[in-house]
Design a protein that fits this description.
It is built from 15 helices and eleven strands. By secondary structure, it is of the alpha/beta class. It has three domains: 107 residues, no CATH class; 129 residues, no CATH class; 79 residues, Winged helix-like DNA-binding domain superfamily/Winged helix DNA-binding domain (Arc Repressor Mutant, subunit A). The protein has a four-stranded mixed beta sheet. Strands 2-6-8-7 form a four-stranded mixed beta sheet. The longest helix is centred in the middle third of the chain and has 32 residues. The radius of gyration is 21 Å and the shape is globular. 38% of the residues are buried.
Length: 352
């Protein structure tokens, strides 16, 4: 068990963020353990032709058989929404002794031997980190960035918006109780209980001591986890709510959920509105109507689309006036969702 001890001001310094590099690294778990992450099966099937052109020997080895990942591959984000290239630069600059220790620790977790590619690089950790950075950059560029990451980012943004609402409405105890069953809060102490014996054996008490706690949602977590080395500011990753929506509109083996390859014809991305709907009501409103199969607030939609809340609000007002959306108040927020008429226009046919 890990205990994070908060002082008077530590909760105020706690913040949420997400990491495109962490999601890139952890997405490799979906390849190794497809049954654990069914919402990503169609995505990985769509990436397969591109993935096979990459440094697969190294990429496949970055996830140990038990699912552990060397900690240097997922550096703590320095801001709530870091740039992938900046995070990759931090990874590439990891001290060689840290790279070596982290790789050995990940494989020591279940006693597995190093695969040949890592065994050949472990005594040259600088070369290992450089090759890992190059392989992850190619994987990100070819497989994730075109279509998968925009959808993943919208799920992570929606999670963070929800957590902020929970903290304001229910306080720290309500926030942490809602994050994950492994977490509990009492009298200024946050406890994390991990069921894996190797992690439990490392359990320790951590004084937040003015550094703040970083909370990171992920699409590839089966429960809350922390950096078992406990170097640097305290960090906890937890499963993002809404991650199952990554599978919406996708079927393994049909289409290319990873996006079009160079030279291929255009591919409609997941969540992209039909051309006929765009022609009828315009691209911004068609996009909003497509997204609002599930309820969302103006702020959440603005984050997902990368525009201002004011711009979103004007379009939502027009769609609601036309009877295509319904409004529901949730606490201090107003949530929008397609009406039955909106479902019919968007071709959703949802079950209510």
């Amino acid at each position: 068990m890990f205990e994070f001890r908060f002082g008077v001001d530590d909760l105020a310094a706690t913040w949420f963020g997400y990491s495109p590099l962490q999601e890139t690294v952890l997405s490799l778990r979906a390849r190794r353990f497809p049954a654990r992450y069914p919402e990503h099966r169609a995505w990985t099937a769509g990436w397969q032709p591109r993935y096979e052109t990459l440094d697969t020997a190294l990429l496949d080895s970055l996830i140990a058989p038990v699912g552990f990942v060397p900690d240097f591959l997922t550096p703590r984000p320095g801001s709530p929404r870091p740039d992938f290239a900046a995070e990759l630069a931090v990874l590439a600059a990891t001290p060689p002794e840290v790279v070596r220790a982290d790789v050995l620790a990940a494989y020591r977790g279940d006693g597995s031997p190093l695969p040949p590619v890592l065994a050949g690089l472990i005594d040259d950790p600088a070369a290992l980190s450089a090759r890992a950075a190059e392989a992850l950059e190619a994987y990100w560029t070819r497989c994730l960035a075109p279509v998968w990451w925009p959808r993943a980012r919208s799920v992570l943004e929606a999670d963070i918006t929800h957590r902020g609402r929970m903290l304001s409405e229910r306080g720290a105890e309500g926030l942490f109780a809602d994050l994950d069953a492994r977490l509990s809060w009492h009298a200024g102490v946050l406890r994390l209980v991990d069921p894996h014996p190797a992690v439990r054996a490392v359990g320790t008490a951590v004084d937040v001591a003015g550094r703040g706690l970083v909370l990171i949602p992920t699409l590839f977590g089966l429960g809350a986890q922390t950096d078992i080395t406990q170097l640097g500011p305290p960090l906890i990753t937890y499963p993002a709510r809404g991650r199952a929506t990554m599978a919406e509109g996708l079927t393994a083996g049909r289409g290319r959920p990873g996006g079009a390859m160079p030279g291929e014809g255009p591919v409609r991305a997941p969540g992209e509105p039909p051309a006929a709907l765009v022609g009828l009501i315009g691209a911004p409103r068609a996009r909003l109507l497509t997204l609002l199969e599930t309820p969302a607030s103006t702020t959440e939609l603005a984050h997902r689309l990368g525009v201002t809340p004011g711009a979103v609000s004007r379009h939502l007002g027009a769609l609601a006036s036309a009877g295509l959306l319904e409004r529901t108040r949730h606490g201090r927020s107003v949530l929008y969702r397609r009406s039955l008429l909106g479902d019919g226009l968007a071709g959703g046919g949802t079950t209510r």
